[in-house]
Design brief:
Protein name: Regulator of G protein signaling 13a
Helix content: 55-70%
Number of domains: 1
CATH topology: Regulator of G-protein Signalling 4, domain 2
CATH superfamily: Regulator of G-protein Signalling 4, domain 2
InterPro entries: RGS (IPR016137), RGS_sf (IPR036305), RGS_subdom1/3 (IPR024066), RGS_subdomain_2 (IPR044926)
Structural class: mainly alpha
Number of strands: 0
Largest sheet: none
Radius of gyration: 18 Å
Oligomer: single chain
Shape: elongated
CATH class: Mainly Alpha
CATH architecture: Orthogonal Bundle
């Protein structure tokens, strides 16, 4: 279903978010048996999705985020609900952790702070005042972990709120029905 797959938002391009690298990186794990079954059953599925992979999405948010298509469909779902700032922030933090240059890290930390953390930020995430203050102090001498607490909070929010809504959504159920029908054929 091409309408469910979203490309990265234009406003993330200035932050050099490379979701393809993330998908190939440490979060790409998952169940090897399930991935091998997907490859063997892909002839029945022209979209590149298979029932086995999609059924893994319901096991955990980590499983959903480790899937190329799962990530894209989850992002599209959140965007349709006008609540995609959390996944956007989480992905930007994942990319931020890969920065090696201290100059680039400092510049990126300030951009992330202005876009997601500061009060009244354009894509402000829901974190407590104490965490916001710690990050404000941390970005004066940024490290790869200066956004970890906010990222943990945001992941928890998605896990408790957005992820269960996604699993109950008509989009996810229709996609599961479509792929399970192609497996039956």
């Amino acid at each position: 279903m091409p309408s469910l797959v979203a490309s990265p938002p234009r406003e993330l391009q200035h932050l050099n978010m490379d979701t393809e690298n993330k998908k190939r990186g440490k979060y790409r794990g998952g169940n090897l048996k399930s991935r091998l079954q997907c490859r063997s059953s892909q002839a029945a599925n022209t979209e590149g999705l298979c029932f086995e992979e999609m059924s893994q999405w319901s096991h955990s948010l980590e499983g959903l985020l480790s899937s190329k298509y799962g990530m894209q469909i989850f992002q599209a779902f959140l965007k349709s609900e006008f609540s995609d700032e959390n996944i956007e922030f989480w992905l930007v933090c994942e990319d931020y952790k890969k920065i090696k240059s201290s100059f680039r890290m400092s510049s990126r930390a300030k951009k992330i702070y202005k876009r997601y953390i500061q009060v009244e930020a354009p894509r402000e995430i829901n974190i407590d005042h104490k965490t916001r203050d710690v990050i404000r102090r941390n970005i004066k001498a940024p490290t790869t972990v200066c956004f970890d607490e906010a990222q943990r909070i945001v992941f928890g929010l998605m896990e408790r709120d957005s992820y269960p809504r996604f699993l109950r959504s008509d989009k996810y159920r229709a996609l599961m029905d479509t792929t399970s029908e192609s497996v039956k054929m």
